[in-house]
Amino acid sequence: MTEVATSIQETRRTARSGMSVSVEIIDFYRPVSNSKNLYISGIFTNELNEAQITAVLYESCCPFGLLHEVQVFPGVKITKATSKLKVKEDSMSYYAFVKFYSYHDAQKARVWLCKNLTVGSQPCKVSFATRTKVTDAGHILYAGRCQELANFYLGFNGWTTAILRLQEDKESEGTSLMGPHGEGHSLTGPLPQPLQAGVRRVRFFCLLELSFPRQGLSTQGFGAWEETYAAQDPSSKATAILKARKRSLQRALEEAFSRCLLVAVGGRKVSVEIDTTRCDPLSHPHLAALTHEEGLQVTELEAEPQCPEEGTTPDPHTTHATDDVNLHILQELEDN
User: What sign does the CA torsion over 314, 316, 322, 323 have?
Assistant: First the structure.
């Protein structure tokens, strides 16, 4: 029985006893629901700018849960004092949106902020947003946000990653398929038009495994990225290789997390489930082609590979190549 099933049984027993327990599912996508988005209005001030107001709202809201974003926008300028609002003439008005990952965290924050939040000359009004146009629906969180969300709910030791494959596409030499301005490309959508002559590309594929030791679960993610470089500039090629490797690893991590669901029971117990409705990363055409090539090499072996004789020393360049690559890429991510 999984940990989630156990938590659900405990929830049912609690419900039968008359106590109210909430269950919430949090995914690794940008939160777009209005129930997780607080709308704050009635901000009138001349002393604070947008960045300072953002800092005040973040400090006021973060104790209630992990925040995804705080957005502050300028409103209208007050031209005269009114009898309803004790606002100084020429004061600037602002409004803001505060996005939580959890509805229950947003609800707790709204209840407290309605009575205690003051930014500027008077208390602010706090309610749930009523946006009708959703622009971020279906957008996977960036790698850094995925790690932040996982660490918040599972702890730093609640998940691990392992690079199963990090490989360059040797057929990527030649005319580039980058964007019109030479920017990197993730290969997840339609390919842009070729670039001009004298520009080359480098492409890397990454297959990564994401594991959750406490739940005994794991999933995989596939990422691909390509960068351009000037054919006559060696330093440009080195930079492109480093960036393509790093970005492909980040894309693989993002896709792996996108298959995971955090199940919070009663706002305290948090477990993990894998979304099996998502397509298998091993079915990606680029990765399938690479595994097919390696499979052909294996089936053409005429004899079983023999183990090295006892007492011989393995070649360090072959036995530790994968570990060196993993450590190098992970260190680059931590440094950036």
Answer: positive
Rounded-to-integer distance, Cα 92 and Cα 43, Å: 8
pTM, entire model: 0.72
Strand partners, 120: 44
Placement of tokens 């097919």 in the chain: 292
Tell me, what's the pLDDT at 120? Answer: 76
Strand-by-strand arrangement of the 92-100 sheet: 67-77, 92-100, 37-45, 125-128
> Under DSSP, is residue 220 helix (H, G, I), strand (E, B) or coil?
strand
pLDDT of 83: 43
Cite the DSSP H helix spans in the chain: 3-16, 50-61, 103-116, 143-154, 234-258, 285-299, 316-319, 321-335
3-state class of 189 per DSSP?
coil
Q: Would you state the structure tokens that stand for residue 278, as one six-digit string?
A: 């998502």
The length of the chain is 336
Q: Are 94 and 46 in contact (CB under 8 A)?
A: no
d(CA 279, CA 281): 6
Using an 8 Å Cβ cutoff, are 270 and 154 in contact? yes
Question: Environment class of residue 179 by beta-carbon count within 10 Å: exposed (0-12), middle (13-18) or buried (19+)?
Answer: middle
Q: What's the pLDDT score for residue 261? A: 95
Q: Which portions of the chain are predicted below pLDDT 70? A: 1-21, 78-90, 134-137, 171-196, 267-268, 280-336
Burial class (CB in 10 A: 0-12, 13-18, 19+), 191: exposed
State residue 274's pLDDT score. 93
| pLDDT recorded at residue 17 | 41
Q: Can you list the positions of beta strands (E) in 59-152?
A: 67-77, 92-100, 125-128
Residue position matching structure tokens 């996508």: 29
Nearest residue to 113 (alpha-carbon basis) of 127, 101, 129, 133 = 127
The DSSP-derived string for 236-287 is HHHHHHHHHHHHHHHHHHHHHHHTEEEEEETTTEEEEEE-TTSPPGGG-HHH
pLDDT of residue 296: 35
